[in-house]
Design a protein that fits this description.
The protein is built from five helices and no strands. It has about 160 residues and is mainly α.
C-alpha cells in the first residue's frame, strides 16, 4: 500500500469520527441555526470521508467503466440538478442582497457559496468524469477497427 493510500484511509476514518462528534454536539443545542450549521459541517465531513475512501479505491483498484445506460441516467439527473442549482443560486443571491440582518446575510452567503460550489462540481462531473469513464459501443467498434492489423478484413 502506498503512502497516499495509507493517508487516504486514515483521513477517511478521521473525517467520519469528526462527523460523529459534530453530530453529537448538534444534538445538544436547541439553537436551530447553530444546529443546522453543525449538521452541515458533519455532512461535509461524511462526504470527505467518502471521497478519501474513493481515493483509496482509486489508488488500489481499477475504476469501473460506466455503461451507456448509466451515463444516460447520470446525465439526465445531473442536468436536472444543474438547473435546480442555478435557480437556488439566483434565489440565495437575491435574498442575500436584500436582507439587512448580518446574521441572516451570513447564512444566505454560506448557502450561496455552497450552491455555486455544487453547480461547478456538477458541471465538472458531467463534462470531465462521466464522459471520460464511459466506453460506448462506438468506442468499442472504433477500437476494433482502428487497432486491428487487418482493419476488418480476414486476418491470416
Amino acid at each position: 500500500m502506498s503512502d497516499l493510500s495509507s493517508i487516504a484511509q486514515v483521513a477517511a476514518e478521521k473525517e467520519l469520527e469528526h462527523a460523529e462528534e459534530l453530530r453529537e454536539t448538534a444534538k445538544k443545542t436547541k439553537h436551530l441555526v447553530l444546529k443546522a450549521l453543525l449538521e452541515g459541517i458533519a455532512k461535509d465531513s461524511e462526504k470527505h470521508s467518502l471521497l478519501y475512501k474513493a481515493i483509496f479505491d482509486f489508488l488500489n483498484k481499477t475504476s469501473t467503466m460506466l455503461s451507456e445506460e448509466e451515463l444516460e441516467t447520470l446525465e439526465t439527473s445531473i442536468e436536472r440538478h444543474i438547473k435546480v442549482e442555478s435557480e437556488m443560486i439566483q434565489l440565495a443571491r437575491e435574498w442575500s442582497e436584500k436582507v439587512e440582518s448580518p446574521k441572516l446575510k451570513m447564512i444566505l452567503v454560506a448557502i450561496l457559496e455552497d450552491e455555486i460550489k455544487h453547480h461547478k462540481l456538477l458541471r465538472n462531473i458531467l463534462d470531465k468524469i462521466a464522459r471520460r469513464e464511459t466506453f460506448t459501443e462506438e468506442d468499442f467498434w472504433d477500437a476494433v477497427w482502428r487497432d486491428s492489423p487487418w482493419h476488418g478484413t480476414p486476418g491470416g
